[in-house]
Design a protein that fits this description.
Layout lengths: L2 E16 L2 E16 L14 E4 L6 H12 L7 E4 L3 H4 L4 E3 L5 E2 L4 E2 L10 H4 L2
Parallel strand pairs: 3-4, 3-5, 5-7
Antiparallel strand pairs: 1-2, 6-7
Length: about 130
């Protein structure tokens, strides 16, 4: 087992059209992360802040909108979006949307792809 410290610097400024809306994404992030070979992350360091998990691969309107709306909330305004389908990675996120086959507001897991999902806006807010 070995540790590999990695410093990540991401600077991006982009304009995208998501579901017909023009969205500006701008971020600067400098973070040192210690990775252990062969082990998924078990929990994030306290200084990392909030993370929003969603699936990797092609993005769709539902996951893009979910992440955008969460980042409008004060609690998640500076959150990092983590894109993965790995359950071990998603378990480290504060909130997970559109992936994971779990819909459970108590644990902040919001997927709607399983057959048992039957929530509607009316059932959530009668």
């Amino acid at each position: 087992m070995f540790r590999c410290p990695v410093t990540v610097l991401v600077v991006s400024k982009s304009f995208r059209s998501v579901c017909g809306l023009r969205v500006e994404a701008s971020s600067t992030l400098v973070r040192t992360v210690s990775l252990m070979a062969g082990e998924p992350p078990t929990k994030k360091p306290a200084a990392m802040g909030k993370t929003i998990g969603t699936h990797n691969g092609n993005f769709h309107c539902d996951d893009a909108l979910a992440c955008f709306l969460l980042k409008l909330l004060p609690e998640y305004k500076d959150a990092t979006v983590v894109r993965s389908r790995d359950p071990a990675v998603l378990d480290t996120c504060d909130v997970v949307v559109d992936v994971g086959a779990v819909y459970d507001p108590a644990t902040r897991r919001y997927d709607h792809h399983q057959k048992s999902f039957n929530e509607t806006m009316h059932s959530l807010n009668p």
